[in-house]
Amino acid sequence: MKLIFEKSVPGQSSVSLPESDIGKIKIDQLLPKSKIRKELDLPSVNETDLVRHYTELSQRNFGVDQGFYPLGSCTMKYSPKVNEEMASLTGFTQIHPLSDDVDVQGALQLYYELEEFLKEITGFTAVSLQPAAGAHGEATGVMLMKAYFEDRSEKRTKILIPEAAHGTNPASSALCGFETVTIKSNSQGEVNLDDLKKNMNRETVGLMLTNPNTLGLFEKNIKKICQIVHHQGGLVYCDGANMNSMLGVTRPGDQGFDLIQLNLHKSFSTPHGGGGPGSGPVGVNKKLVPYLPVPRVKKNGNLYCRDYNHEKSIGKVKTFMGNFGVMVKAYTYIRALGGKGLKRAGQNSVLNANYLMKKLKPYFDLAFDKTCMHECVFSDKKQQLYGVTTLDIAKRLLDYGYHAPTIYFPMIVHGAIMIEPTETESKRTLDEFVEVMIKIANECRTKPELVKTAPHKMLVTRVDEVAAARNPNLKWEE
Ligand SMILES: *Cc1c(COP(=O)(O)O)cnc(C)c1O
Q: Which of 239, 262, 263, 264 for mutating ligand 1's site (highest number of atoms within 8 Å of CB)?
């Protein structure tokens, strides 16, 4: 396949606009000379070529609308099309964020009500929808914790992060200038309480905890964990990207956490991945409300308005109000499912993961043999006997038309294979996947070379991942 630059023919264009009837102004009357570009290296293609190029590229992609996508920790679940319909209503798409509040009452009402729903779902006092993604929500959360301690004139420099945390947690902490201290896991795959006690002190902001953790396990000592951190005046942060597994069953606000970020683009639909927009709202308890980003959407009588009047606010973390389209989808999803529906979604995520876990357990080594939440983690221990590794298994799955699970993460499991089936898959899909996994387990035993050289049906087989990232060659030789 050619690059779009190679398809370029000088002089071709995909737009044809009528002559302007309001007169022309020379560019140098608008911009200083030094700012005017002499050349712009863009491809010139006609509309047909342009559409075909990008359609062809899109068909080489894999998405959840094409097949099962069991990417652990990422909740690649099916996103109902009605959400897209609602998000594309012109009443939402054609409004401008600088409109006066009175002219965008509907959008502000949706914003306000979505915050209310998320408060109810998580058990927190207030929510800000502003952050644009999970990691951005984390960074916002850490900024809130920082502002809280600065306001109290307490100098705290460290933050505790368990081994089983998502990789974005230490990154968010570092971004805000904190030193991260790693907390060990115990033999059950949960936070080691002794190690937590040893490291939690008055120099430490608190703990960032993913619950359920990245092993797909619920931290059953959560109350004790919160007590230990609170005892030293610290705060407990919940990475709530996996909230889909707890919907309607338990609330992080009730578990003792002080704040949370959610991933609307995982738990509350919106297909994610591929760099599309996301939304990572932050929920906080009473202590942290004064520091939330502005504007806050308030309701005065029947009128909704944006309120900038918060002296201690950390300010803005995103232009305007965040990624509004994602919020419309999440709002539609929550309204369509209702409380009972959300609970069933949560229960199904756990049921599906446990079903897969039980079915695959005889064939693959299970990292922690106990009931899981929304995902389960295997290792390649049994396959290593035949010289086959996790990477080989993941590559072989591509030949059977599946997206590979998350692999080699979490790092505390050697050769991890992390499977999250999500709540939207049917038993039939799960059974078909199990059948293929068993087939691969047998191939590892009988034809290990076949698995070690997989994939055999893909256009791209195995790439040197480091070289590919450092020195990308986007051209495709067929
Ligand atoms: C996906 C995920 C994140 C990061 O979310 P992004 O929207 O990709 O920035 C953080 N924590 C956990 C546990 C996640 O699964």
A: 263
Report pLDDT for 273: 67
Is 135 close to ligand 1, i.e. is its CB under 6 Å away? yes
Given pLDDT bands bounded at 50, 70 and 90, which one contains residue 210? Answer: very high
Backbone angles phi, psi at 165, to 5 degrees: -75, 160
Q: pLDDT tens, 259-309? A: 999 999 999 988 776 557 899 999 999 999 999 999 999 999 999 999 999
Cα separation, 195 vs 173, in Å, equals: 20
| Sheet with 406-407, side-by-side order of all strands | 365-366, 376-379, 417-419, 406-407
* Distance from residue 403's CA to the centre of ligand 1 (Å): 19
Could you tell me which residues come within 8 angstroms of residue 20 by beta carbon, excluding any fewer than 6 positions away?
A: none
Question: Token digits for 212?
Answer: 């359920």
Ligand 1 mean position, distance from CA 170 (Å): 12
Q: Is 263 in the pocket of ligand 1 (CB under 6 A)?
A: yes
**Ligand 1: residue whose CA is nearest its atom 7:** 134
Q: What is the pLDDT of residue 478?
A: 57
d(CA 433, CA 418): 14
d(CA 287, CA 127): 13
* CATH 3.90.1150.10 domain locations along the chain: 346-470
Atom from ligand 1 closest to the CA of residue 278: 7
Give me the architecture of the 81-337 domain, per CATH. Answer: 3-Layer(aba) Sandwich (3.40)
CATH code 3.40.640.10 region(s) in the chain: 81-337
Domain 346-470 in CATH 3.90.1150.10? The answer is yes
